Amino acid sequence: MKNTFTHALPDESGFFGEYGGSFVPEQLQSIIDEITEAYLKITKDEGFLTELADLYKHYVGRPSPIFHARNLSDKYGPQIYMKREDLNHTGAHKINHCLGEALLAKKMGKKKIIAETGAGQHGVALATAAALVGLECDIYMGEVDIRKEHPNVVRMAILGAKVIPATHGRKTLKEAVDAAFEGYLKDPVTQLYAIGSVVGPHPFPMMVRDFQSIVGNEARQQFQEMTGGLPGNLVACVGGGSNAMGLFDAFLEDEGVKMYGVEPSGRDINKDGEHAATLSKGEPGVMHGFKSYMLKDAEGEPQEVYSVASGLDYPAVGPQHSYLNDIKRVVYEAINDKEAIDAFFELSRVEGIIPAVESSHAVAFALKLAERGEKGSILINLSGRGDKDIDFVVENYGSSYGVSDLL
Fold it and tell me: Is the pTM value of this prediction over 0.90?
């Protein structure tokens, strides 16, 4: 199995080609350098790696299984499989890097870990990890998402985290990141900002990618054991892009495996502020301390974005995704709100699995790929479960699917 912590990219400055790096105030860079040094040290620390592997197995429940979705396969044609990250403790892939970041913070002598969250999955996972290792935890979350993802807000509170509303702008994920950075800058010495995706200044895109690489490493071995070969296609949703990067990483050198990152086209991909399709509609720029593709307004500032999935409405994307887009190793396409909600109900009613709305974008694209005539097998990263979304989905879309009378 591939060594998770050995990669050609990023380079020593944190760049994937022209993307990445660290664009932060000078006074913060010394703190970031300490994090980089500490991270590189723990990747060679057998005690750390053993502790993390033990937690993955006995706490998270790894390896997560691959499920052969035979009902969908029979209905749509190609053989469809799902990497079941939704079965992890806390309900999503986010726990993979949260445990790593929390253990790192503990080893660095930090007192508190802080983070942003959109759909709440990263917030729940980090609150869980903080409780486990004995750290304080602050979670910044947009007011809109606090209402939309209320079950996860309750979970964070039960776990002992403090949920801090982001009250400016559209009050969603981008604003939560803004607020978290402001909170971090007030005290970068005793806090660690545990960024929730493959975004932010170096070393975070590398670090989160490495911790999430366990998804692809497992999937590559499991799929070969199940089928005797590799999947023809990989499909994963992309906001910041942690779950997609976690799956793709182990297959990047397998030229016969096609990869698709699925962005949200929201209500209208051709209307500013009504989508979050960064790689489809964006251009290179710098925000939140790193260079990547981003959606910009007329003044060159981050554009307002929207998606039915709170975890995908971010106006930038991980720098490695930008690099993979430019070299055409991964194809990035978009799925709109209606297609995602249709897929949410389709997977629920055909296979008995209620997915997160974020993951529903990947499911929708996989079904579209099948309808286009794809014959090769399709492996979807089912990055999270839909417990957090059911009230929102039924309230806003239930009448179209015969469930609104339950409210």
Answer: yes
In a domain, 2, yes or no: no
Residue type, 304: E
Whether 383 is catalytic is yes
- Residue 106 — left, alpha, or beta (φ > 0 → left; ψ -120 to 50 → alpha)? alpha
Per-residue confidence in pLDDT tens, the chain, 407 aa? 455 656 889 999 999 999 999 999 998 999 999 999 999 999 999 999 999 999 999 999 999 999 999 999 999 999 999 999 999 999 999 999 999 999 999 999 999 999 999 989 999 999 999 999 999 999 999 999 999 899 999 999 999 999 999 999 889 888 999 999 899 989 999 999 999 999 999 999 999 999 999 999 999 999 999 999 999 999 999 999 999 999 999 999 999 999 999 999 999 999 999 999 999 999 999 999 999 999 999 999 999 999 999 999 999 999 999 999 999 999 999 999 999 999 999 999 999 999 999 999 999 999 999 999 999 999 999 999 999 999 999 999 999 999 976 65
d(CA 88, CA 92): 6
Of the candidates 124, 166, 114, the one whose C-alpha atom is nearest the C-alpha of residue 144 is 166
Q: Which burial class, exposed, middle or buried, applies to 26 when counting CB atoms under 10 A from its CB (0-12, 13-18, 19+)?
A: exposed
Nearest to 43 by CA among 87, 91, 5, 83: 5
- Same domain, yes or no, for 254 and 348? yes
d(C-alpha 198, C-alpha 225), whole Å = 29
Cα-Cα-Cα-Cα dihedral sign, residues 189, 16, 139, 174:
positive
Q: Determine whether 94 is an active site residue.
A: yes
Q: Which of 85, 101, 116, 304 is the catalytic position?
A: 116
Strands 66-68 and 80-84 turn out to be antiparallel
Q: Of 94, 110, 148, 171, which residue is the catalytic one?
A: 94
What is residue 5's DSSP assignment? T
Q: Which of 310, 368, 383, 388 is catalytic?
A: 383
Domain membership of residue 400 (yes or no) is yes
CATH number for the domain that contains residue 179: 3.40.50.1100
Whether 70 and 193 map to the same domain: the answer is no
Residue 1: inside a domain, yes or no? no
The number of folded domains in the chain is 2
What is the pairing mode between strands 136-142 and 112-117?
parallel
